[in-house]
Design goal:
There is one protein chain. This protein is of the alpha+beta class. It contains nine helices and nine strands. A hairpin with a 2-residue loop joins strand 4 and strand 5. The model has no long low-confidence stretch (mean pLDDT 93).
Length: 318
């Protein structure tokens, strides 16, 4: 992620004295992402990832780290938090919460094919299924109420047509009744840059710091919108079917989820359009910063506002 908090080698070496992962050899800031500060840590016992949390509260962090530990124990390829000598996942560095997790092999795929999408769908379904046995509960802090509160802050930077479209989409989502849709643990950010492929298999799913309890089909829509988005920001039917079919082999969607599918595609596109606009116009400063362009999701929202029903049949109705 972006480096907002700078640290020295002596800072890290002192902090590592509270862990049993060896002596520090070197460390390096990671520039991708926008929320937390991350460093690669190389010790004489291997490579790890250090995260310094810039905004998240302790209660949220206990949820995230506990979830990752839970998923890792069930064999899923996720970062496994490392406990310190006090058997705690969460510590403090530079007066901020910090944690160390295992390093996972692999790299993101820029242009995914049918096989990549099938692997992603399968893994997402396993995360959802395994999440049912996780006892932690955390509401989605970037749900509808977040959209409604943040959108007015970015309106001064936008033209009237863009403002009107965002407002129309917010009103559309607010008009829906999603009470009958299954909820559970969702990753909420399973984009291409958060999935590492080691050859032809997934070596890791990273960045669980948006995870929460919310609609499972919404998480599927978030994932499809990124993995199956064309260069023109429409949806590629073939890769979408591959991802969804692999998902439904693990977890069958309910009839209510199938009916809600077009509106979930719209909701998922709107959420990331607003958040990317917010990061573009109201950014935080960092030594190494990296933001994501909002335009692809603007185009998706524009497309779905006219054609979302076109994708209703992506999910087989058995």
């Amino acid at each position: 992620m972006s480096v907002f908090t700078t640290i020295s080698q002596s800072d890290v070496s002192r902090w590592l004295e509270t862990y049993s992962i060896g002596d520090l050899i070197k460390f390096q800031g990671i520039s991708s992402g926008i929320e937390n500060t991350n460093y690669f840590l190389d010790t004489d016992r291997g490579r790890f990832v250090l995260t310094i949390f810039e905004k998240l509260k302790h209660a949220e962090l206990f949820y995230y780290l506990g979830l990752m530990s839970h998923l890792a124990k069930h064999g899923l390829p996720v970062p496994n938090p490392v406990a310190n000598r006090n058997n705690e996942f969460l510590g403090e560095l530079k007066k901020k919460p910090a944690a160390i997790v295992s390093y996972l092999k692999g790299k993101p795929v820029i242009k995914p094919d049918l096989k990549h999408c099938a692997q992603v769908g399968k893994t997402l379904a396993h995360i959802h299924q395994t999440g049912f046995s996780y006892e932690g509960v955390l509401d989605n802090v970037m749900g509808k109420s977040w959209w409604e509160s943040k959108a007015p802050e970015i309106y001064p930077f936008l033209d009237k047509k863009t403002r009107d479209l965002i407002q129309e989409e917010i009103e559309f989502q607010s008009s829906l009744n999603n009470k009958n849709l299954p909820k559970g643990i969702i990753h909420a950010d399973m984009f291409r840059d958060n999935v590492l492929f080691d050859g032809e298999i997934i070596g890791g799913v990273i960045d669980f710091y948006f995870a929460c309890n919310d609609l499972l089909v919404y998480d599927l829509a978030i994932t499809v919108n990124d993995w199956c988005r064309t260069e023109n920001s429409a949806l590629d039917v073939n890769t979408a079917k591959s991802l969804i079919t692999s998902y439904t082999k693990i977890r069958t969607l309910t009839s209510n989820e199938i009916e809600a599918w077009p509106s979930m595609l719209r909701a998922a596109a709107l959420r990331f359009w607003i958040s990317r606009l917010y990061d573009l116009y109201l950014p935080r400063s960092g030594e190494l910063t990296h933001s994501h362009p909002p335009l692809p999701f603007q185009r998706l929202v524009e497309h779905y506002s006219k054609f979302s029903e076109k994708y209703a049949d992506l999910i087989d109705r058995k």
